[in-house]
Amino acid sequence: MSAKPVLVAGAGIAGLTVAIALARAGASVILAERRAGFSEVGAGIQLSPNATSVLKRLGLSGEVARMAVMPKRLDIRRWHEAAPFAGMPMNEAPEADGAPFLTIRRADLQTALLDALRMTPGVRLLVGRSLTALSQHSDGVSATLTTERGQAETIEAAVAIGADGLWSAARGLTGDAAEPRFLGYEAWRALVPAAAAPEAARRAAVNLWLGRQGHAVHYPVACGREINLVVIRAGQEKAAEWSRPGDAASILGFARSAAAPLKALVEAAPSWQVWSLADRAPSRMAIGRIALIGDAAHPVLPFLAQGAALAIEDSGVLAQLLAPALASPEAGAVEAALARFAALRGPRAARVQDVARGNGRMYHAGFPLAFARDIALRRLGDDGMRRRYGWIYGWRAAPG
């Protein structure tokens, strides 16, 4: 194995997962996070089988599942109507390889990954350090990590992995200067105590409500103790890196026309955090000895529930390819492994991004497109809907 460590910038879901995977394969890892501590970002996430299969291979699926809910169905409704008109099974039949759909609080997933990281030898976690410079040379990379007080440290690493999200510093330091583009929508997120939620919202299901001006998604998390609620609506504020508190009166006004169960759930939310939605074209996922994963490489809009899943996929594949290359005496083995990673992951990530964008247009369609959409979804039926996304959920990393 290389005497130099692998530097991972960003300790979100992607960074934590790839650090665990590489360290368990024998690599030395430095994981740098610009925040001084770990706090919940977002509320809940969906983990489809393509993601939970990777967690299973890392030995993490049991701990994650204990904090999660296993939904039975996806039910799709119109904004004004309480009865679902389409949907698909999620966990009605056990997954053949033990990789289920799960819904989980982002904080719980992060806790499980952090606990696993701390139990894994070979990882050095640095918090309160931002990646401020990055360059390559013949046998590695030089990276500068800087604290908020301006204290800088130079790290010599075999490889640098940018896992630092939509506003990735690593991506910018590779020469990709394109900024994220505000889409005119904002995501309002809340965690509602299950005891305060309508009975329908407490069922083990993912619920999608489609409307012309926006849409909503909700599902139970935290073993059913809370309901994760996301409302997407048009917004005027410029895209920003961080969330902001939301005015409850504003979102209550927006939900006034919703069906009674959804309106009641919105009214039960104790507080809101708001994100402006931004899009960004996919980046090159490998440049020499620098790799980009997750949102740093290919941010996915929240219209397909695949952002975290793709990040976990990236992490598993990258570790699987990179670990043996780090141990190889052959010149160019590391660069070849990263090029192979980019070739494998780039087309799939771009396709998922495109489908998510298309879903956003479909979700918010007005008449007559919405009428045609609803007929098409109804005709698909349960099995047809699942087959439609089989290429996403059925993905598995190559044996290795």
Tell me how many strands there are: 19
Radius of gyration: 21 Å
Alpha-carbon distance between the two ends:
17 Å
Q: How many strands, which pairing sense, and closed or not: the largest β-sheet?
A: 8 strands, mixed
Average pLDDT: 93
Shape: globular
Enumerate the spans where pLDDT stays under 50 for 5 or more consecutive residues.
none
Q: In DSSP terms, counting alpha (H) and pi (I) runs of 4 or more, how many helices? A: 11
Q: Beta-strand percentage?
A: 25-35%
Strand neighbour order, sheet with most strands: 5-4-13-14-15-12-17-16
Structural class: alpha/beta
Query: Can you write the helix and strand succession as a string?
Result: EHEEHHEEEHEEEEEHEEEEEHHEEEHHHH
What share of residues is helical? 25-40%
Structural commentary:
It contains 11 helices and 19 strands. The mean pLDDT is 93. The chain has helices spanning 13-24, 49-57, 61-66, 106-118, 169-173, 248-254, 260-268, 307-327, 333-363, 369-388, 390-393, and strands at 6-9, 29-33, 44-47, 73-78, 86-89, 102-105, 123-127, 130-137, 140-146, 152-157, 159-162, 181-193, 205-210, 214-221, 226-234, 244-245, 273-279, 286-287, 290-292. A hairpin with a 5-residue loop joins β9 (140-146) and β10 (152-157). It has an 8-stranded mixed sheet. It has a 6-stranded mixed sheet with strand order 7-2-1-11-19-18. The protein has a 3-stranded antiparallel sheet with strand order 8-9-10. The relative contact order is 0.17. α1 (13-24) packs parallel to α8 (307-327), α2 packs parallel to α8 and α8 (307-327) runs antiparallel to α9. With 400 residues, it is an alpha/beta fold.
